[in-house]
Amino acid sequence: MEKSTVIGIVLGFVAVIVGMILKGASPVALVNPAALMIIFVGTAASLFIGFSLEELKGFPKLIKIAFTEQKTIPKMDLINLFTDWVSITRREGLLAMESKVEEIQDPFLRNGMRMIIDGNDQDFVHDVLMEDIQAMQERHRSGAQIFTQAGTYAPTLGVLGAVIGLIAALSNLNDVESLGHLISAAFVATLLGIFSGYVLWHPIANKLKQKSKKEVEIRLMMVEGLLSIQSGISSTAVKQKLMIFIPTSQRDEKNESKAGDRDE
């Protein structure tokens, strides 16, 4: 479970509900079937018009990704893995890795290692792996775009809902007692539209983009590591090359901890 996503959504609901109570409004007003219909069904309709069914089939999976903690290999673990592999291949040759290929859990890394063991040209391996990354980025971009567009449509549909509510209110000017209730109900759609757009859809789109960026970084590290194995450079050189992907602050922490271990 991605705790930050759950915490954010809960805080969003709490902020609105507590804010309404502090302003003297009843949170029960949010349970407005007409407003919910206009915002959520209207947003769904806009997405069906704007995207193909093939793209929208992945909507439930994208929601699951936003609420599921991302499982990627830690960067330092990946660096240690490649330094070990480089040591093995320099000592025993590339074919020594053949027995370890099936132990690799990550499909991208496993495929890259197989291409290297099969003796493919370094440029060919680089091109295939980079094209794979680019294809993945495009898939992720298309998925995040669905939520970005939903976040754009929802607030505008909220204005539409307010207009519809005001039309209903103005058509009942003779009923003074219910006029205030009808006007307040009209703006519930605006509230729901802005809330769903800027507390749900846009943040989920951003979450998906961040997860995609992290996965791309890990795969770029894999590409560099695999090509380093193929080129036959030393394990020290591989480590220096891959440490570029580690933030400077974390590199300094690693160096300090190693220095402390040597002092002891």
UniProtKB/TrEMBL annotation:
<dbReference type="GO" id="GO:0071978">
    <property type="term" value="P:bacterial-type flagellum-dependent swarming motility"/>
</dbReference>
<dbReference type="Pfam" id="PF01618">
    <property type="entry name" value="MotA_ExbB"/>
</dbReference>
<keyword id="KW-1133">Transmembrane helix</keyword>
<keyword id="KW-0283">Flagellar rotation</keyword>
<dbReference type="InterPro" id="IPR000540">
    <property type="entry name" value="Flag_MotA_CS"/>
</dbReference>
<dbReference type="Pfam" id="PF20560">
    <property type="entry name" value="MotA_N"/>
</dbReference>
<keyword id="KW-0145">Chemotaxis</keyword>
<comment type="similarity">
    <text>Belongs to the MotA family.</text>
</comment>
<feature type="domain" description="Motility protein A N-terminal">
    <location>
        <begin position="6"/>
        <end position="93"/>
    </location>
</feature>
<keyword id="KW-0966">Cell projection</keyword>
<feature type="transmembrane region" description="Helical">
    <location>
        <begin position="5"/>
        <end position="22"/>
    </location>
</feature>
<dbReference type="GO" id="GO:0005886">
    <property type="term" value="C:plasma membrane"/>
</dbReference>
<dbReference type="GO" id="GO:0006935">
    <property type="term" value="P:chemotaxis"/>
</dbReference>
<keyword id="KW-0375">Hydrogen ion transport</keyword>
<feature type="domain" description="MotA/TolQ/ExbB proton channel">
    <location>
        <begin position="102"/>
        <end position="218"/>
    </location>
</feature>
<keyword id="KW-1003">Cell membrane</keyword>
<feature type="transmembrane region" description="Helical">
    <location>
        <begin position="34"/>
        <end position="53"/>
    </location>
</feature>
<keyword id="KW-0812">Transmembrane</keyword>
<dbReference type="InterPro" id="IPR046786">
    <property type="entry name" value="MotA_N"/>
</dbReference>
<dbReference type="InterPro" id="IPR047055">
    <property type="entry name" value="MotA-like"/>
</dbReference>
<keyword id="KW-0813">Transport</keyword>
<feature type="transmembrane region" description="Helical">
    <location>
        <begin position="146"/>
        <end position="170"/>
    </location>
</feature>
<keyword id="KW-0969">Cilium</keyword>
<protein>
    <submittedName>
        <fullName>Flagellar motor stator protein MotA</fullName>
    </submittedName>
</protein>
<keyword id="KW-0472">Membrane</keyword>
<keyword id="KW-0282">Flagellum</keyword>
<keyword id="KW-0406">Ion transport</keyword>
<dbReference type="InterPro" id="IPR002898">
    <property type="entry name" value="MotA_ExbB_proton_chnl"/>
</dbReference>
<feature type="transmembrane region" description="Helical">
    <location>
        <begin position="182"/>
        <end position="201"/>
    </location>
</feature>
